[in-house]
Amino acid sequence: AQSVTQPDIHITVSEGASLELRCNYSYGATPYLFWYVQSPGQGLQLLLKYFSGDTLVQGIKGFEAEFKRSQSSFNLRKPSVHWSDAAEYFCAVGRTGGGNKLTFGTGTQLKVEL
Amino acid sequence: NAGVTQTPKFRVLKTGQSMTLLCAQDMNHEYMYWYRQDPGMGLRLIHYSVGEGTTAKGEVPDGYNVSRLKKQNFLLGLESAAPSQTSVYFCASSPRGGDGYTFGSGTRLTVV
What we know:
The complex is a heterodimer of chains A (114) and B (112).
Chain A: E1 3-5, E2 10-14, E3 19-21, E4 24-26, E5 32-38, E6 44-50, E7 56-58, E8 64-68, E9 73-78, E10 87-94, E11 102-104, E12 108-113
Parallel strand pairs in A: 2-12
Antiparallel strand pairs in A: 1-4, 3-9, 5-6, 5-10, 7-8, 8-9, 10-11, 10-12
Chain B: E1 4-7, E2 10-13, E3 19-25, E4 31-38, E5 42-51, E6 54-57, E7 64-67, E8 73-78, E9 87-94, E10 102-103, E11 107-111
Parallel strand pairs in B: 2-11
Antiparallel strand pairs in B: 1-3, 3-8, 4-5, 4-9, 5-6, 7-8, 9-10, 9-11
């Protein structure tokens, strides 16, 4: 069974500082990996996805993530955080076929200090 | 704007009452999903559908039923609501080949 672990429940960074959110997955084959962001009272918005190929993927809002098979990780990064990045971030793993079901992590709440 | 629309946005039910949550998408997506979101537990899949007229159970299906009579609509029913079903419910859709989900804005349900 596939699973996702986001070890950090809360993270606080200063505006302008760099950010890394951790995500570890468990999956029997090459996974499809996603990062979503959720602002308060809103649905989830897709930031970026990894299906295959280049292990460093670029997303919207200046985010990027790196797939490391040896570490079963897919960490999300941003070089300089903006106050508007404060939100909850979810990592998800899945596959095509079988209904494209995704398994989500429990989320990391990001607070940005001005 | 194209996307996924959920109705209602908020609802309060008394224990034992029934209700139906409606999800509509206008992107011609094959697959649709219902998730519930609870604090500290992320999103958990309730039911999903891979096409019109088909449904399947997810991780936490008990107490819920679904129907997909039309490709664009996916209904989630609670026949006899319980306080444990207090949650935020999200509908999502995706095309057959993957490419991630498009989510609705959610329905906040409170069962008292």
